[in-house]
Amino acid sequence: MKALAILLVLCGTALADGSGSAAGSAAGSAAGSAVVIQLPPELGAPEVSAAASPAQLKLGDRFTLFITATYGEGIEVNLPATVDLGDAFEIKRTSSEDHVRPDGKHQREWQLDVTAWDLGDLQVPPVPVTFTLGGHGGQLVTNAVPIRVTGVLGEADDPKLMRADAPPVTLKSRDWLWVWVGSGAVVVVVGVVTFIVLRRRRRHRVRTLVGGLAPAVARKMDMTSERALERLLAIEQSAVLEHDEDRKRGYAEMVEVIRDYLGARYRFATAELTTSELLRGLARRAPAHEHAMVERWLGKCDLVKYGGQRATAGQAGQTLADARELVLQTTAQPHAEAA
């Protein structure tokens, strides 16, 4: 702690020594700039890191940026009041959770709900994390996080896809009271009919997504569950599980869907974790029966992916049905609400 105090005092002295030949504009510039103090780990400075899930998404989709700070007793950590990720990203919401690790270290995790508004291989810039230690303040920055954003209908700035300017058009309006009254009545009727039709289609779509599983009708699914079920349905319709030479790849695709779903549902980065690391992270966030369900399902898939077990088409179909059931059983729980 003494060494930390000396380091902070030296930094303050260096900033204050702006009188002499560099007085004037240099002093004003130094006063208006932030000081980032990088402290070595032996002085007790926090450790900070950043990760994103999912790391590949479409333009306008949302992803979660996880910022983690690990620190000891007597240290306070926080994010700046305003986090600027640049023009390519928009932060929708921010939340945080605190944990104490088995080794006694404290850990704070911020979850930033971010929308991507640019295409290509992007990087979420480093995020500053402020801290206080021994009555003095400091600042650290996280690592940059790479993500890939793809388009839906092609590059938005392609001039061949843009329509030419249209000439002005004259608009006419008529004040016909009874026409408006009749139109309003028609709109009401059409609205009621549309609502009924859309409700029926919604129920049919839910049954399609879950493959006819009975619990789906009684549960209200959120977007996280619907996205996972849509991807599982696409795997089923691709027939990749029906062919012996493609079945192992089909298992890998199912595991990727469930990994992304778990990361979004329980709010932690899963893309780079091994199965054991994923299960350890899930144990701190999910109820025991849900953790056991995920562990059983991933164990069966690992036997096919890594253990050399050859699954039949029937077994692969049952594994897909179990994946749907896993999504349904972890939906509409208090901890499963979207951030």
> Treating each run of at least 4 consecutive H or I residues as one helix, how many helices?
8
Radius of gyration: 27 Å
Overall geometric form: globular
Low-pLDDT ranges:
1-36, 214-218, 333-339
List the secondary-structure elements in sequence, H or E: HHEEEEEEEEEEHHHHHH
Assigned CATH architecture of the domain at 34-150? Sandwich
Task: Please report the total strand number as a whole number.
Answer: 10
**What would the average pLDDT be, to the nearest integer?**
78
Q: Could you please say which CATH topology of the domain at 34-150 applies here?
A: Immunoglobulin-like
- Order of strands in the sheet with most strands: 1-3-6-5
- The portion of residues assigned to helices is 25-40%
Q: Give the helix/strand class.
A: alpha+beta
CATH class of the domain at 34-150: Mainly Beta
The biggest beta sheet is recorded as: 4 strands, antiparallel
How much beta, percentage-wise?
Answer: 15-25%
Distance between the termini: 38 Å
